[in-house]
Amino acid sequence: MKKLLFLFTLFLALANSSFGQNKITGTIIDEEGNPVLGADIYIEQLHLGTTSDESGYFELVNIPSGSHQIHIAFVGFSTENLRVDLESDPVNLEITMRPSVFHMDEVIVSAPFSRLQSENVMKIESRSIETLKKAGAPTLMQGISNIPGVSEITTGTGIGKPVIRGLSGNRVLVYTQGVRLENQQFGSEHGLGMNESGIENVEVIKGPASLLYGSDALGGVLYLNPEKFAYQNETEVNLNQTFFSNTLGSNTSLGVKTSGQKFKFIARGGLNSHVDYMIPDGSRVTNTRFNEKDFKAGIGLNLDQFVTEFRYNYNNAQIGIPDDLIEESTDRSPENPYQDLQTHILSLHNHFFLKESKIDLNIGFISNVRKEFEDHHDHEGEDHHEEEEEHHEEEGDHEEEGDHGEEGPALHMKLNTFSYDLKYHFPKQERLELIAGIQGMSQVNANFGEELLIPDAKTNDIGVFATGIFEINDDQYLQGGIRFDHRNLSTETYIIEPHDSDEEETIVPGIKREYSNFTFSAGYRGQFFKVLTTRLNLATGFRAPNLAELSSYGVHHGSNRFEIGNPDLVSEQNFQADLSLEYANKHFEIYANGFYNNMNNYIYSNPTGETIDDFQVFEYVQNDAELYGGEFGFHLHPHPYDWLHLESAYEMVVGKLKNGDYLPLIPANKWSNTIRGEFNGNDKFNKIYASLILDSYFSQDKVSEFEDPTDAYNLFHVRMGGTFDFNKLDMGINLSFNNLFDTEYISHLSALKADLIPNPGRNIVLGLNFNF
Q1: pLDDT higher for 19 or 443?
Q2: Does residue 374 share a domain with residue 316?
Q3: Which domain holds residue 436?
Q4: What pTM was computed for the model?
Q5: HEC profile for 177-202?
Q6: Total domain count, the chain
Q7: What is the pLDDT of residue 388?
Q8: Are residues 640 and 731 in the same domain?
Q9: Same domain for 94 and 169
Q10: Does the CA dihedral 528-673-666-371 come out positive or negative?
Q11: What is the secondary structure of 312-340 as a DSSP string?
């Protein structure tokens, strides 16, 4: 132990000797010249931050030379974004903050130029995890679905699939820790696979982002930013505990983080456990229970002209797949059928600061193991499995856990994904910024179970792109770019043995496919009459067919159907136009976001009318489609009632095939109205809030040929909370009454809708947060 401590100390000493001595100091004041205490000062790309003291003073040390964006934020003031060119001499700043009653401006990480949302050309929604927790959602995905334009396809409470403006599945790309999340997300019953512990905030790009992220970003991006390191020379310990009445659930998270002037460390563990959810009549929906374990850790190091950050995330979830309403149970162990998911995410982010430019290199590796267990195995795939065992033993990829007797998983897939992202930031001109980059992914899918849904396969992606932003003046920006992508995909031939001796075996031939696509984007942001912000964006996107769409042949028990792929599918391509208008003054803001999305070669599954093994057969087909709609709302902060906020948001989307048929799984229109009070309180009990929310879901009768309409319903919620200060202990409390009147309803995007199983009833949620 002493030797390890000595080596660790030596490592830190060597690191200390490599640091530059650049320093940024400053004073933060309000418009009346008073110092601002507790303002957050942060440099995103360096993961460095601090707060201002009682005199408004702050200090950041050991900063690499180069150009840096410094963000200063404090509740009640507009966020300031400053660009500082740092060489060898210290920089001293004096920053005057302007009052803002609505919200703090967020730094957008998912966009290429790390600007504030108010300066960004694209309209990107951002929500902190703290804000989402106040909604009392049992899962991260359910919390994200409260963002206008975002919905979720659900199978019980444990499985939630993101939907952005009517598009889901592989059309929505998820990024976490700066790398793309790959976890067999092709199925509607495959959830997000992420826990909210250790996540700082969520950014949502609503529209094609293929220019930045390549294939699968055709419909949009969920960008999950990891929890920030502690500020310089600080150590923090945090405990979160949430209780859920409906599912007798518990969500616990414990984290510790510490930062010196040069070295940073963070670690957080989480446990999430729920029983079957209860519907308004008092029954519980069998096997909607789930359990989740999550661990995240990170190390950061700032050297002279070089900054590196390593992050690791392990997530294990056991999620029941509901079948029908039977006797009530409060057991927490899932019954058959259920999923057992294990995911390891490793990411390494590096920033190299040159004299006037910068290089970013991000590397990621994800290992995802998906197992699905059933009641009965017919062992139809045993011969195939024996062949697969021999094959993987030869490849050195066999797992000892592959005991495939009756207790083993029916479906067992392992997906390994390596990704890289290299960007070069050209020296910034007076009004022009340019970035060029190359991105790629190498992926291997292997099967170990009795049954196969998709074959063993290899996928390789590579893309090159260039993008830039031009500042016409202080209020107008132009942004655009172009990209080329190439995907190479190959699968192995597999054999499906017949059930009966008089039937012939089924041979599913292997395929080799290549897909290439050009994409572009162009956007404009302008400020008219000093109060009307206008954003116009035009973009193309694409999505190559996934393995399930190309080559599946078998029963997918999660969706309860027999799926047949189509090897002749071509890439989906789309063109989307977005127009965003925002008006704001000191007491009122209103916005309107409209979009039109024209899609060529839209891929969807279609029932054939046949059955195999008593399962309805679905095959993948293509057709042209279009989607249109938007989000509209206002926020009123009336004077002189400074504590009162009135908010309203309406969202809608229509999706149709070009032949006139409606698309499946399009969310119903929603109108949300909120009355919120915010109070400062006193020195001990402050940041007090209380909200009344009415969510009105309209009937959905614009449905596909194989869907049933959904009735309208209203849900009423009450939320309240605040923070307590006890010497060095900071405690927060949140109390939510979701679906207060225990309304019985069925969401149009519920996978249990076909069985007429309602969504959860009333849920009282108590959240406690302790900062030490």
Answers
A1: 443
A2: yes
A3: 142-771
A4: 0.89
A5: CCEECCCCCCCCCCCCCCCCCCEEEE
A6: 2
A7: 47
A8: yes
A9: no
A10: positive
A11: EEEEEEEEE------S-----SPPSSEEE
